[in-house]
């Protein structure tokens, strides 16, 4: 079973948009989540750091929420990019999304020291708005479910 | 205007429950959110680190989600503690909550370099379950709203 994303959409974000604490490849202090296709679903793998605990033995919910957040925006970007005829191994710049809303249900405590796998199912609800249902697994156990509504980043958002 | 929480509920959590990456006073790598009363509402102040960005100029949504999360559990703890007759400046150990669910609506981009203020309104929906509505302000501007459902931590959760 593949436990690594080969072609991540975040690898293709332009440098100016690659500083996200969650998924920016240039943010060395961040989580550097990487999201790719797994058939018609999307996947992000992440191993939490030892400090990322809620109480000893269990992962902090804010880390799970962060994983769901960036997995959601990355999945939306993958989906619109594919709709436009591109895959993340193309050189073409992908569309960049921001999170409109995020929700997480904590199904069971997430054990520490286990590779997490976020799996996304993307639905287009408007040409510029996508809904991503996210399941987070630890060693095959469903620990959290979430939903992200992601919208195409407004041009004004990155204006300097 | 007071911009600091004098008596935080997290200051009273027992050591074993003070390692949370969001609000554990013993987790030196974490955010160390501190939540206290402000009249009948609750408040947490937080200055994001420079790395905690989404894109340059704006705070990462996962940090906002983390703030909402711990502000929610801390507020629930404050509320049940007060119901039991105690305030966070008492020596009495407060009840500890875990997050059942978390939602965040990102109302507008949150500017970097600004002290964030989370304000909570707590509602008891069951003797062991509290709902906390959270508003997150940056310099007086409402940037995000959220909701946390927090439940009293099951005894099994901390079992070693």
From TrEMBL, chains A, B:
InterPro entries: HotDog_dom_sf, Thioestr_dom. Residues 57-141 form the Thioesterase domain. This is PaaI family thioesterase. It comes from Sporosarcina jeotgali.
């Amino acid at each position: 079973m593949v436990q690594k994303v080969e072609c991540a959409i975040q690898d293709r974000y332009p440098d100016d948009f690659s500083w996200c604490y969650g998924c920016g490849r240039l943010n060395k202090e961040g989580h550097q989540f990487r999201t790719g296709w797994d058939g018609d679903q999307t996947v992000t793998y992440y191993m939490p750091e030892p400090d990322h605990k809620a109480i000893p033995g269990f992962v902090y919910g804010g880390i799970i929420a962060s994983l769901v957040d960036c997995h959601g925006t990355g999945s939306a970007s993958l989906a619109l990019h594919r709709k436009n005829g591109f895959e993340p191994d193309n050189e073409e710049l992908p569309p960049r999304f921001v999170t409109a809303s995020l929700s997480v249900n904590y199904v069971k405590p997430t054990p520490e020291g286990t590779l997490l796998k976020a799996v996304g199912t993307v639905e287009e609800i408007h040409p510029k708005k996508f809904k991503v249902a996210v399941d987070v697994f630890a060693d095959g156990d469903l620990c959290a479910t979430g939903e992200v509504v992601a919208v195409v980043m407004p041009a004004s958002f990155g204006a300097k």
